Amino acid sequence: MFFPLAGKLIPWFSLLAGAFALSGLYVAFFVAPTDAQQGEAYRIIFIHVPAAWMSMFLYLVMAGWAAVGLVLNTRLSGMMASALAPTGALFTFVALWSGSLWGRPTWGTWWVWDARLTSELILLFLYLGFIALKSAIPDPSRADRAGAVLALLGVVNVPVIYFSVQWWNTLHQGASVSLTRAPSMAMTMLAGMLLMALAAWMYSIAATLSRLRAIILERERDLEWVQLQSGSLRTAP
Amino acid sequence: MGAAFGLVVARELRLALRRKGEALNVLVFFVVVASLFPFGVGPEPAMLQAMAAGVVWVAALLAAIVSMPRLFAADLADGTLEQLAASPHPLAVIVGAKVAAHWLLTGLPLALVAPLLGLQYGLPADALGVLVAALLLGTPVLSLLGAAGAALTLGVRGGGALLALLVLPLFVPVLVFGAGAVGAALSGINPGPHLSLLGAVLAVSCLVGPWAACAALRVALD
After folding, report:
1. Please, which pLDDT band fits residue A90 given cuts at 50, 70 and 90?
2. Nearest residue in chain A measured CA to CA from B153
């Protein structure tokens, strides 16, 4: 069964998340050099970029699970999608918030209505809509399928965010990291960012799994093993 | 299949004719919302001209949202929807017909009234033409994607606000390209690319909207 496995995995992923975050923050603050143009302000990158990556990636994963649930009618995939949504929304919010804090010293403004910022904001709305729709439908299997349809409708937005800096002229800089060419930043900066990205990954996995366990317990509360687990069966006469 | 499409469209139109107020209310809502902005921002002609397209489009989006909940609700309440779903014709065709009728009743009148609002905002004649063309291309998208949202929120408590939360983010491309086309015309650039993109959005919505609405309707009818 998936439930105990998830329970065993959560502490490990949490530990890894903590370790990566600590080492990433160490590199970010003590090893990485000061940026020639932006000074110390650029260090927000170590939060901003991993959060932005995760916000898009988690939406894709969520939509993927939603599609699996819609096609194969498996119950766990719907729960998986619901478990992913709050973490994705959190990272989207963090990406927007840190970006705003970064924009103030470098661009001189908290917010500009350019393509990347607005499309990321729409991503946040999509997450919120997904969560709202799920919570508005009381029947879990209906909620899963309705949410799946909505998640798939919204998936168009992710490539728009990702390519927005190439398609439109914008204040937001282009990608500094790519798989096909050498990164346009110092090695230690890249290392710090990747460590923080790994930390974000591990955190997402841990948070999603523990939320998933809670959802499983809530939905299967009438089954014997759940009642044994929570101890409510023992107190019953 | 074509006959079924025609019959559903005719039924929707006949129903709307019996309750003329509903479609008319949406149109009046559109005009009222668009007329509110000059009160809020002041009557300077240059500023009003610059924001005209955005205001008209936002009003159109809101009008579409307001008209949406009724698309399936009445049919669900009296059981017609289950009969339609049980018919031998594909549900997508029936949904497509309902969307087409919805557009004829809300989107089309709205596009026809829009030049009047544009005049109030001081848009020049060529920009008015572009505004109508953009609305004619864009409002079907609102009906198509809105139908998916209406089907998703069918029978859900507090459906109206939820519908807006679900669908408005999906409407953003229409708003951007629709208002962009008029903006391009105003600044003397060819609005063609914006209109082409709107057409592309419409093509994708024709593919995706009925599918999503059907999937959501089957969930609601379970």
Report:
1. very high
2. A133
